[in-house]
Amino acid sequence: MNAAVGEKTYEQVCAEVVRFYARHVQLMDEGRAEETAATFTEDGTMVSPPKISTPIVGRTTLAAGLRANADQLSADGIRYRRCYSTILVEVRADGSIFAKSYVQVVRTERGKGSYLHAMCVCEDVLVRVDGELLVAERVVTRDDEIV
Amino acid sequence: MNAAVGEKTYEQVCAEVVRFYARHVQLMDEGRAEETAATFTEDGTMVSPPKISTPIVGRTTLAAGLRANADQLSADGIRYRRCYSTILVEVRADGSIFAKSYVQVVRTERGKGSYLHAMCVCEDVLVRVDGELLVAERVVTRDDEIV
Amino acid sequence: MNAAVGEKTYEQVCAEVVRFYARHVQLMDEGRAEETAATFTEDGTMVSPPKISTPIVGRTTLAAGLRANADQLSADGIRYRRCYSTILVEVRADGSIFAKSYVQVVRTERGKGSYLHAMCVCEDVLVRVDGELLVAERVVTRDDEIV
């Protein structure tokens, strides 16, 4: 645990990962689609079986999907908050980071209060590009689709 | 991320901020009103639009409000837990810290189980006084009041 | 906060504790009973008043209980996720660690979606054995049983 990871210690990497998710998730939940897409690598992938079983590939495609989604939610008066917790951080030999998080997705609809929409697990491979962590590969699963 | 903040590294500041919220929130949720008020600066402010649109100012006023609230909840057999997650920590040039957190407020009522009461976002300016982090300014918003 | 704890700094200990819980909880929630039991000390104890008022003592007994529970949940198509947040970490003079966490227990049942099952507080004494953190004593309380 004291060993440096590249030039970074484990606690430095953890602080970075926690910071990454906080910023990434708040951008996504606030509908800032293009900035969210920029937190993926250029050829980043996202898959969410069984619903999205063919990976979405690349920042441009991700940005378009995020934008369409954000506009729809805004029009419908719906807000999602992805509450990340219990984040397991593992540094791999190649310097990439595997992070497995619990995500409580809370939905708020105008006039209907807030409730737990889905319990998800998010498994990411994060890589460092020009000093910044980015999502290279994401797999999201919903407990109610796999139990 | 490696750069020292004042004399502290980013990961030191993050560990402090996480510790601050854990202690602060557990004091609040356990009805320890005066100790909670002491985690604000002497002239600390709290606002929660639209319900509390005029800021509550100062430790004494905060303590009185927290005490009245805690006593009422205790009499009614109600417990709130403010589950902080997804905490974004930014250190500002003046040494203060901006922290933006997701807060799932869970309510438990005697004989009625626990449920999500509100999904909130808490935006704080934290400052250091005699080495201790304190809340100088707080803005809390509820998603169901702003969507 | 800068002071070393044994040979570790506070932020190192915090990173370790957060890592411990992420791994421990994910093992438990995935039904890996024996690996979960191995994250307790040989004579580790667990109590959850009022339901479990007599402590469960020892890794072997814990493993048996966890295994029976995991098998039953699997047969019933139920998944629990224990979302840990707001973790207060205190290092004691004897080198042990007191950690007090909020735990939102989310339950997912086949065909019934996910919902908040219980709001718990988990109070652990963690000790270091051969360099690894382990639970020596655990007390879990449910808000709906103590309000």
TrEMBL record, chains A, B, C:
A Pfam family: SnoaL_4
Q: Which residues cross the membrane?
A: none
Q: Which residues form the SnoaL-like domain?
A: 15-138
Highest taxon above the source species: Bacteria
Q: Which InterPro entries match?
A: NTF2-like_dom_sf, SnoaL-like
Gene3D superfamilies in the record: 3.10.450.50
Know the name of this protein?
Answer: Nuclear transport factor 2 family protein
